């Protein structure tokens, strides 16, 4: 079933196209809006009206008026000059997401480009041709100009593209896919590149990954709570409702679901109050959930809006210049998301320490090994977790406050939203590994608690872990276990196993 683009997209729809290779259709009303807007632009060109980026230069050169003979060639030169990125290719799923985001922007009928250009982007998506786009070079204002220009090059039959698993010169990739390149006319080039669509696509994919990650963080917390015989009064619904944060209420409910029926938690010997890393999970993960909700809302506003410059209003025969390309809304959302994830990671590392430390782990063997002294057990996995937490803290330093002026100070404030999006992706990658390490330790601790049984949901999680990582009876290199488990967490296998018991977690 295709995603029909009418100017309104959800994160889930973008993910289905970017990762799931779902087909795309342009809604008939979107086609009409695009054509109506183009007619306005062409009428104004005939009247020799001056319009930014149509018959003027851009940036500091906006006061340079182009001749009619220069207008078409200028759109090609815009793309050439702006394709100035650096680094490794962006993941294909990100580029596909950015292409869909740009189609959605154009579907509002405020951009002024020809319908043929929008249809060509749709065709690239549907036939699996993905432009090669360097990761770095966007400052997140005037859009993601460098990476979007590499996308636009492919529309013209230039640059490079991935097709059927191989990297080709764009013209060859298009030929193999049966796609004719397009020749840009007035406005087409700038309208194709002038939005923060790479940031938006990265952000949407990160929001999608973070949602599963947050639920995984509740599962691994529940496993550790059971292994350490935590006082579950801290997760009573009344505790969280009296304060009122929706994320904390939901998180506490999930943890109660996951731990329901636990023999381990029915044992005596509980503390009156546990340490904060055990007692505060719902408050901390709940705050991260609330942050996630805001981040998702900001990304979806961008997916549903007309982010371009200038903006054309056909009904009023009006052209307005502004700054709807500005990436600050997405940048601030992703800064918060990265900080929220890192905060939950800190809690995970502290729980991991309690599982390892014989002074804190309620009778478990030191470093979760029977032969402490001869063996070091899982001791060094906590070092790795600590190193990743430290890296994430550094990555939480905001990029969104780091504007460096461009274009001879005409563009004297930029969002640096691409830097934010790239570092948030690394935060998430590290965060998957941090949870993976706690999952390994929690499973080891639960094995030591036998014959007492954990809850059915926690047992399902333990069994999912044991499919990939064996009980640590004597020391072995741990890096394979950690790397393997990180992939398991990222794929959502443990979450799926738990939800077969609990039903969908909120």
What would you note in describing this structure?
- There is one protein chain.
- The chain has 506 residues and is mainly alpha-helical.
- The chain contains 19 helices and nine strands.
- The strands form four sheets. The protein has a three-stranded antiparallel beta sheet with strand order 4-6-7. A two-stranded parallel ribbon has the order 1-2.
- It is elongated and about 85 Å long.
- Helix 1 packs across helix 9 and helix 16 (417-448) packs across helix 17 (456-466).
- It has two domains: 3-195, Fumarase C, Chain B, domain 1, CATH 1.10.275.10; 202-502, Up-down Bundle (Fumarase C, Chain A, domain 2), CATH 1.20.200.
Which terms summarize this structure?
Fumarase C, Chain A, domain 2; single chain; two-stranded parallel ribbon; about 500 residues; Fumarase C, Chain B, domain 1; mainly alpha; about 5% strand; elongated
Q: From the coordinates shown, what is the CATH architecture of the largest domain?
A: Up-down Bundle
How many helices in DSSP terms?
19
Could you name the CATH homologous superfamily of the largest domain? Answer: Fumarase/aspartase (Central domain)
**Helical amount among residues, as a percent range?**
55-70%
Q: Roughly how many Å apart are the termini?
A: 26 Å
The best one-word shape is: elongated
Under CATH, the topology of the largest domain can be stated as Fumarase C, Chain A, domain 2
Main-sheet strand order equals 4-6-7
| CATH level 1 class label of the largest domain | Mainly Alpha
Estimate the mean pLDDT confidence.
96
Question: What count of domains describes the coordinates?
Answer: 2
State the order of secondary-structure elements, H for helix, E for strand.
Answer: EHEHHEHHEEHEEHHHHHHHEEHHHHHH
């Amino acid at each position: 079933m295709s995603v029909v683009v009418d100017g309104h997209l959800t994160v889930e729809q973008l993910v289905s196209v970017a990762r799931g290779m779902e087909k795309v259709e342009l809604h008939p009303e979107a086609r009409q809006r695009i054509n109506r807007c183009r007619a306005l632009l062409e009428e104004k060109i005939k009247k020799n009206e001056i319009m930014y980026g149509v018959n003027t230069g851009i940036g500091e050169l906006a006061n340079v008026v182009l001749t009619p003979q220069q207008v078409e060639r200028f759109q090609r030169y815009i793309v050439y000059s702006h394709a100035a990125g650096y680094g490794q290719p962006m993941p294909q799923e990100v580029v596909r997401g950015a292409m869909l985001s740009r189609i959605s922007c154009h579907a509002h009928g405020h951009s002024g480009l020809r319908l043929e250009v929008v249809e060509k982007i749709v065709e690239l998506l549907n036939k699996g041709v993905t432009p090669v786009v360097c990761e770095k070079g966007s400052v997140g204002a005037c859009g993601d100009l460098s990476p979007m220009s590499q996308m636009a090059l492919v529309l013209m039959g230039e640059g490079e593209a991935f097709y059927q698993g191989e990297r080709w010169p764009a013209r060859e990739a298009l030929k193999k896919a049966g796609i004719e390149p397009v020749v840009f006319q007035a406005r087409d080039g700038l309208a194709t590149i002038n939005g923060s669509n790479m940031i938006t696509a990265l952000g949407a994919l990160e929001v999608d990954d973070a949602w599963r990650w947050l639920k995984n963080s509740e599962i691994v917390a529940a496993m550790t709570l059971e292994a350490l015989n935590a006082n579950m009064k801290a997760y009573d619904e009344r505790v969280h409702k009296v304060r009122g944060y929706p994320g904390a209420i939901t998180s506490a409910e999930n943890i109660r679901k996951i731990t329901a029926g636990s023999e381990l938690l029915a044992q005596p010997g509980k503390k009156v109050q546990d340490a904060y890393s055990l007692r505060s999970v719902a408050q901390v993960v709940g705050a991260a959930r609330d942050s996630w909700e805001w981040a998702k809302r900001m990304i979806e506003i961008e997916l549903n809006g007309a982010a371009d410059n200038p903006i054309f209003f056909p009904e009023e025969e009006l052209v307005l210049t502004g700054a709807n390309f500005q990436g600050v809304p997405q940048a601030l959302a992703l800064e918060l998301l990265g900080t929220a994830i890192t905060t939950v990671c800190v809690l995970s590392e502290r729980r991991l320490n309690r599982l390892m430390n014989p002074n804190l782990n309620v009778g478990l063997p030191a470093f979760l090994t029977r032969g402490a002294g001869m063996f070091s057990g899982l001791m060094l996995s906590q070092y790795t977790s600590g190193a990743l937490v430290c890296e994430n803290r550094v990555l939480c330093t905001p990029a969104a406050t780091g504007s460096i002026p461009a274009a001879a100070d005409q563009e004297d404030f930029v969002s640096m939203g691409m830097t934010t999006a790239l570092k948030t992706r690394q935060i998430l990658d590290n965060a998957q590994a941090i949870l993976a390490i706690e999952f390994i330790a929690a499973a080891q601790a639960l094995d030591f608690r036998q014959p007492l049984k954990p809850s059915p949901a926690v047992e399902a999680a333990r069994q999912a872990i044991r499919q990939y990582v064996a009980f640590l009876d004597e020391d072995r290199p741990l890096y394979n276990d950690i790397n393997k488990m990180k992939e398991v967490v990222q794929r959502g296998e443990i979450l799926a196993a738990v939800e077969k018991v609990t039903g969908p977690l909120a």
